[in-house]
Specification:
662 residues, alpha+beta, six-stranded antiparallel sheet, four-stranded antiparallel sheet, globular, disordered C terminus
Length: 662
Amino acid sequence: MIPEAGHYALVLALALALFQSVVPMAGARWRDATLMQTAPVTALAQFVFVALSFAALTASYVTSDFSVVNVYENSHSLMPLIYKMTSVWGNHEGSMLLWVLILALFGAAVAVFGRNLPDVLRADVLAVQSWIAVAFYLFILLTSNPFLRIADPPFEGRDLNPILQDFGLAVHPPLLYLGYVGFSIAFSFAVAALIEGRIDAAWARWVRPWTLAAWMALTLGIAMGSYWAYYELGWGGWWFWDPVENASLMPWLAGTALLHSAVVMEKRDALKVWTVLLAILAFSLSLIGTFLVRSGVLTSVHTFASDPSRGVFILAILTLFIGGSLTLFAWRAPALRQGGIFAPISREGALVFNNLFLTTACATVFVGTLYPLALEALTGEKISVGPPFFNLTFAPLFIPILIAMPMGPLLAWKRGDLFAVAQRLLAACGIAVIGVAVTFALAGVKAVLAPFGIGLALFAMAGAVTDIVERSALRSVGVGIAARRAIGLPRSAWGTAFAHFGIGMTLLGVVCETTWNSERIVALRPGQAVSIAGYDLTFDGMVPKTGPNYREVATRFVVRRGGAQVAVLEPSKRTFATRSMTTTEAALMTHGASQLYVSLGDTNSDGSIAVRIYDKPLVLLIWLGAVVMVFGGLLSLSDRRLRVGAPRRRSKPAVLAQQPAE
């Protein structure tokens, strides 16, 4: 009965979404407060029913109910409990249920935390959000029902894809969906504002916290996915320019541009048209990512489904929402009144510069990802667009952004002084020049571009510190006073500094790992040793092990440096009999921000085993930088000036009748 209850709850959620998509918006048009007030109540009820449906599917997995097709195809009674639970979203049907659960969660959050929104805007936002929900409820119920039964239930399941049986997959998809689906709120705000025909600085204040929350989740999701691919797939790489990886990068770039554009709109009431367009594009790119993963047009370790009929359904959703919103934008945008005027050299100008290069980089990734698919669909010709294209087109577009990034926060609004800003950044420039010189001295001419990359990363990091130093007036007042001023700075200022510092950290890790990565591929027998980057690794033999639903051959490598033992690494290969698949479990030794990476290959006929060994200098900075960026976003989100919603203006108090004197 539990699966039937879950299916019924999903149908009820669809009914509520249909009601929510019509009645509140009608109330907004008729200015009927009673009808508008149905939106938050319905949004909360919709979330409750979707949560019940998701809980029913989770319970089916936990109890290994193999009479449910979805559980049979993606679970096994011997799997650890955590993987039974993560199996819920480790497949197409379950992941779509998670998708709509998060969509309903954001709608419920607007209902709860958006009480200070104007009634008309809140009703329209929740109605638009429900339009999206209706489309995806129908998609699940008509093409991807996770509660289908098997007439004659099997005794055992087919197991989850072995590469998905990892803790990283417990975290990566939910975070990624929080980012993807989170941009639906910005989309709903944009469409609601276009319907109403009113977009102002208050609108930007309302939309920024939701966009920031989605951006933070997507940043963590991308970073977690990158780290999972790094240690789980055994290739030793952290980014492959896979089309599905690109599908998550594109909305991140658009969302980053939206955050910066919304700042200009909030502070200067400018860039209205552009900000609304970015809000539409960010979620549109999320929908395109959903299409790529689930349509069958791509073959990737990241894709969930290969059913063309599902792809056609999602394509129809894309046409409806992307085409409809852009048509509405084209109709309404010319009527939007433009806001404040600003000079090219100003903080607004720096943010526009940032937007220009971010959107160009996004367009580059978009073309490189979709052009091969479009060409194959139109002509049948197959071409491959890989890392060389993206490295040559995407990377140069980020150089101007990183140069301008420390300057923007130091420029004044409306009109700035570029020469004065350059003077303030002299120390940051000096640190960057020293970094370039030292790198050249240590690395020589073999790595020509790497020193400049390190200099750029140091400039971005030192520039972020300079912003806080200048705001606290450390150079002109005592340390004690400057410290008190720094503590009293708005959290959004600290958030900006941390986010920019994190970008510099990530760039530093990318440059060092890419340039000075060492690799050895050897075949070793027990007792033999191999050296890499000052470490000696001795192969100490193989040990068979048995896991809950797999057999494992673990190896033992003793790591020494200067003759002293520093670690023991145990990479392994696991064989999952049910799926007839073998996975590679890499072993990692962290030293500072660097890692030693050992991955196994095939066993040879002479008893030796192929081993791939890497030394990856400062590789952890790639993901630590992302964590610092998210921490900066969290600081900004906690700023009292950026709380969800905006306070209503109090009406003038009524004049009280004068009380007689006692």
